[in-house]
Specification:
By secondary structure, this protein is α/β, with parallel strands linked by helices. It has 14 helices and 17 strands. It has helices at residues 3-13, 46-49, 58-68, 83-94, 105-125, 146-150, 155-158, 176-182, 206-219, 270-273, 289-304, 307-328, 349-361, 384-415, and strands at residues 25-29, 32-35, 40-43, 98-102, 133-137, 168-171, 187-192, 195-196, 202-203, 222-226, 250-253, 264-268, 332-338, 341-346, 364-365, 367-369, 373-376. Strands 4-12-11-10-7-5-6 form a seven-stranded mixed beta sheet, sandwiched between helices. The protein has a four-stranded mixed beta sheet with strand order 1-2-3-15. The longest helix has 32 residues, at 384-415. The protein is globular and about 75 Å long. It starts with a helix and ends with a helix. The model has no long low-confidence stretch (mean pLDDT 97). The chain binds pyridoxal-5'-phosphate.
């Protein structure tokens, strides 16, 4: 099958949830994806923040090979040899106490939401006054299932499925006064992303996170940190909230945790965990032997290869290069992000679309989020030379587009 026949078949057979770029990838190596004609693409998106160790990493391949010949599935009715080892690593890295393993980001976030409701129920049973409302943030994204979508800000994701889970209120991003005004004993949790991803690569302020922590402490509400995109080393620390020196009660992980084998995790404090007893929550596939074995390998490889330092170093270089680019091009209105989670905001939707498409023509993959933001979530193994390639391509594209815009406006003036 080639691209054209696959496209035709998908058009007939698949639910139309994505407008795919017409490109058929058949393999990958390092930071490159290879298409059916043998062309290599520099991948600055890593499958939306998933393939952190890049493609065909020998340690990941070996972990999959080894585990696939031993055991793929047990269900959570039995023990297997990797769950506790993975949980130990995750709790040590996060400063949290307990782990629930699942299969995706949205499932991890659902677990967090359910835990917050159950925790409030437990507190009420102990005589505390606490309600069932969630405060989420404007421009948030937490996933596509009913609870996740209810805490996701963009209306286009929620409205077609209304009524979604009620009792969610949105707080203006980084607006401490709005947070304080909307917080009350009715709230069972405040939902944050320390760095918003889909929302356009926006870090929260120290002041906002500190206020959220303090408000939760005042009532027993839980601080839920969605680290599905910004966690697991993406920002140069294991968890983005660690940049702020503030511990959430609950965090949700997914994307890079098993480098492409589907996996999610919800981590919480011992205290919050008291709200869950056997039978209240579960999953058939979650935390299976294959995903756990690979996740352990990903974490151990990241530690062995000192990957957080590398993310910081290459991320700093990338950011500095983006700032230098911004100094040369008026159409760049902002550069944001931490580590290898970076955004370049342009001054028009049309330009952002064109630049993303032209980068793809040059076989460099990035994507556009929040209309005008070019988003970079490259593999952690990215090197400076890859950054230089991307920056010079961006520079050339923006120069040509500025020259075109200049010529067009000169044409308009001479006609007028
Ligand atoms: C911050 C955040 N939360 C949740 C999700 C949902 O994760 P998944 O697509 O694995 O369900 C995403 C996905 O992009 C995300 O970026």
């Amino acid at each position: 099958m080639n691209l054209a026949s696959i496209q035709a078949a998908e058009n007939k057979l698949l639910l139309h949830t994505y407008d795919r770029t017409p490109c058929l990838f058949v393999s990958g190596h390092g930071v490159y994806l290879r298409d059916e004609d043998g062309n290599d693409y520099l991948d600055l998106l890593s499958g939306i923040g998933v393939s952190a160790l890049g493609y065909a990493h020998p340690a990941v391949e070996e972990a999959i090979r080894r585990q696939s010949t031993r055991l793929l599935h047990t269900s959570n009715l039995f023990f297997h040899e990797h769950t506790a080892d993975l949980a130990l690593r995750l709790t040590e890295m996060s400063g949290l106490d307990r782990v629930f393993l699942c299969n995706s980001g949205t499932e991890a976030w659902e677990a967090a939401l359910k835990l917050a409701r159950a925790n409030a129920g437990r507190l009420r049973a102990n005589g505390r006054t606490i309600g069932t409302k969630f405060l989420a943030l404007e421009h948030s994204f937490h996933g596509r299932t009913m609870g996740s979508v209810a805490t996701t800000h963009k209306e286009k994701y929620r409205e077609p499925f209304a009524p979604v889970m009620p009792n969610v209120e949105f707080v203006r991003f980084n607006d401490v006064d709005d947070l304080r005004t909307k917080f009350s004993n009715e709230v069972c949790a405040i939902c944050i992303e320390a760095v918003q991803g889909e929302g356009g690569i926006h870090p929260l302020t120290q002041e906002f996170i500190a206020a959220a922590r303090q408000l939760c402490d005042s009532t027993g509400a839980l601080l839920l940190a969605d680290e599905i995109q910004c966690g697991m080393g993406r920002t140069g620390k294991w968890f983005a909230y660690q940049h702020y020196g503030i511990q959430p009660d609950v965090t949700a992980l997914a994307k890079p945790i098993a480098n492409g084998i589907p996996m999610g995790a919800m981590l919480c404090t011992n205290d919050a965990a008291l709200a869950i007893t056997p039978g209240m929550h579960g999953t058939t596939f979650g935390g299976g032997p294959l995903a756990c074995a690979v996740a352990i390998t990903v974490i151990d490889t990241m530690k062995r290869e000192n990957m957080l330092a590398h993310v910081n170093e290459v991320g700093e270089f990338f950011r500095a290069q983006l700032h230098a680019l911004a100094a040369r091009h008026e159409c760049i209105v902002d550069v944001r992000g931490l580590g290898l989670m970076l955004g370049l905001e342009l001054n028009s939707v049309e330009l952002a679309k064109q630049v993303a498409a032209q980068m793809m023509d040059r076989r460099i993959i990035l994507n556009r989020t929040s209309e005008t933001v070019l988003r970079f979530l490259p593999p952690y193994i990215l090197e400076r030379e890859h950054v230089e390639t991307a920056i010079s391509a961006l520079d050339e594209i923006l120069k040509v587009s500025a020259a075109f815009a200049g010529a067009a406006s000169a044409g308009e003036q001479s006609h007028g």
